[in-house]
User: Fold this.
Amino acid sequence: MSYPPQNPYGQQPYGQQPPPGYSQQQYEQSHQATQAGMPLPPQAPPYQAAPAGQFGAPLFQPPGGEGPQLWDAGTLPANDNVNPYCFSVDLNGAYYLQKGKMIAYYGEMRFSGIGRGALDQLLERNFNSPLHASDWVVAEGRGKLLLADRAYDLNSYDLEDGNLTVRSGNLLAFEPTLQLKQSIIPGFLTLIGTGKFVAASNGPVHFVEPPVRVDPQALVGWADCPAPCHHYDHGYLHGVLGGLRHLTGIGGASGEEHQFEFIGAGQVLMQSSEALMADRSVGVIGAEPGIPGAGVPHQQQQHGGGLQGLGNLGDLGRRFGL
Amino acid sequence: MAQFRLQGSKVLAVDLAGDTVKARNGSMVAYTGQMGFKKLSGGGDGLRGMVTRRLTGERMEVMEVKGQGTCYFADKATEINLVRLNGETLFVESDNLLCTEASLRTGTSFTGLNGMASGNGLFTTKVEGQGWAAVTSHGPAVILRVSQGLPLRVDPGAYIAHTGNLHRALKSGAGWSTLIGEGGGEAMQVEFTGEGLVYVQPSERMTLGGEV
Assistant:
């Protein structure tokens, strides 16, 4: 197959040329902060018609004129979505990303596991989550880096001197200007500082203002200072009949007795499905008293020999004295 | 002349007027008019192709669809990308090839050790000739152009197809740190150099190289 002899992008260094059809103004608009500290994710740029037959490439051209778009190092957006499922990072320096989320890159890059000697200084500043270290890598170099995760929706978020807590499996990448810390709530990571990060959600992400109760599987994260707590609906499990129902299982449960409740000022991020990332085993938090999720049992079992198999409804059996 | 068009992004509609297309076995979801479906043994490349496919492990269960009307194809709600070939060659993973026009020849091509290390097998499927081919991808495919001086490196789990005059080589970042479990997670990359297009899906298959 033949390509035109001169190549319009080949001589250009990275990032010199704004991508066609994606003006700076548009870029800024899509990145406009809607709220201090927690801007909404930018919209993906609209799909462009392909440069028709420009490269002699076998591309689908439907009669409407709108075809798939060709990308290369010059036309890929800088730190923005290529489509709802793919994010392009304009790498110049270092970037943290979760293992296995790179799908392609132009340029020269090196991926090194966290815990390597040369990166220790960077890590001291930014990476304060030793349990998750084995899931993360640092990409170093120059070029365009494409990230994607199981065709989940990707969004980038700009933090300005803010904080955001996100489920550890949903966080894909973040700038080294942010600090990553482990949340007190097991399985969540907190980002603090100013910078951009990329998170995945199954289906588009929704922002909800507390007070709100969300399904645990739909929760992606929260920003600013809502207080997260568990909420159990077991009103109908009260009394003798309810107790019987709970013990015997007759009558069943709706499966929605347990929610997360958020109160306070901030925003809660939800995904539009209840599909979760497979949790990776990250080990146990240091066994010290007073640390939630640590390997220490926080209370001695008082009711030895009590009924087993009561489910996890707040150890309800104990309240019945069983 | 079979007419390929997309019905939404996940269903391929093919208008047939007495001609045939080759499609993955069992991918028909609906049809109007009169259609006949015939399983082709061994990928439909004749006896030689059948033996080759059996030997190379690049299996394709292919059926021949012939008739009058419109036939609809889909595969596990994956996105469909239409590729028009005018004498070029399309290299595609056999798992991602959904449907081809009868005028296209399919065969297998040796990718060497690159393919094996990436977990995609030693061989890949080659489609050549004049006509339409439909390629599936998990999530809409991103089409990346490779030109002189701008090589592209792709995660083998996200690679689905390429066209053009491309050379592919395995680039390994694995070293001693991979062995002690502190690898970069991206130890295997396929490097494309030359001139052409690479189709990448926003998702990764499980590959041998994916976990190191």
In short: Chain A has a mean pLDDT of 71.
